[in-house]
Amino acid sequence: MTPPSLFDCAGRPLDLSRPAVMGILNVTPDSFSDGGRFQGLEQALRQGSRMAGEGAAILDIGGESTRPGASPVSLQEELDRVIPVIERLHAELPLPLSIDTSKPEVMAEAVRAGAGLINDIFALRKGDALAVAAASGVPVCLMHMQGEPDSMQTAPAYDDVVADVMTFLRERIAACAGAGIPPERVLIDPGFGFGKGLAHNLSLLARLAEFRALGHGLLVGISRKSMVGAVLGGVPVEQRINGSLAAAVMAVERGARLLRVHDVKETVEAAKMAWAVIERTEEPL
Question: Which end of the chain is more exposed for a tag (fewer CB within 10 A), N or C?
Fold first, then answer.
């Protein structure tokens, strides 16, 4: 199946006919890479504008850290963090916005505030998330995660990580269809770093092309993650850009069309270079 290439994000188009970049905007004090840097409203707005200027096709706004070992935050605290940012960015920027949350109440309020995509690490498994997402009318991204953020890295285990993740995603795609979310509104994310060890993550990237069989747009988030640090010999987060770019290019080669990243300009350029080669290999000289 050929995945859809154009997503209607509450009236703002997201074109995935070629690789696009999703800029990460964490308005949290404790995210693994940029926690606290963009927590204030004005700081978040400046960062969002900067990423848009660097070529981001969509911004992903999150108010609750999902790093390994992270503790949950209250509903009101998450709303207080994300809703003012979404409202202002929606008013000031023309590109679509995504809400990174698993709470149905946050999904609903964020869409009312201007978000055009729901990005859920729990794949709409919490409460009435499925019903809320269906009623919202916006696209959704379903991610695979084994376990919970506070314990997911304790001892992740799979029979076959690719087959197991694909089975989970098929089940969630079917659940979406049953709730009234059509296939053309569904993106999928294999969930790098969410309940996976290094070997699992490397296998997912090596075999990423297999996810094309699901027939949905493929989002990949590897930017600055621990798998990059581990491969590079334990380098800290701020020194993982080269490894992140290498992973992004490999993901594009294998079918990823939306890259969720911290380093927008660099990833836009790397993806553009990779795509130029991909287009040439698919055309006769």
Answer: C
User: Mind telling me the catalytic residues?
Assistant: 225, 260
Judge whether residue 32 has pLDDT over 50.
Answer: no
Taking the C-alpha atoms of residue 43 and residue 68, their distance in angstroms, rounded to an integer, is 25
| Token pair in block for residue 87 | 């409202």
At 161-200, the pLDDT tens digits run 999 999 999 999 999 999 999 999 999 999 999 999 999 9
CATH class of 18-281: alpha beta
Is the separation of the CB atoms in 56 and 261 below 8 Å?
A: no
pLDDT for the residue 154: 65
- 3 vs 141: CA distance, rounded Å: 13
Which band of pLDDT confidence, cut at 50, 70 and 90, is reported for residue 28? confident
| Whether the Cβ atoms of residue 101 and residue 124 lie closer than 8 Å to each other | no
Cα torsion angle, 139, 115, 70, 261, sign = positive
Domain locations along the chain? 18-281
Q: Are strands 20-26 and 258-261 parallel, antiparallel or unpaired?
A: parallel
Query: Secondary structure of the chain: what % helix, strand, coil (to 5)?
Result: 45, 15, 40
Contact at 8 Å (CB) between 166 and 214?
A: yes
Q: Mark residue 143 as left, alpha or beta (left: phi above 0; alpha: psi -120 to 50; beta: remaining).
A: beta
Q: Are 217 and 174 in contact (CB under 8 A)?
A: no
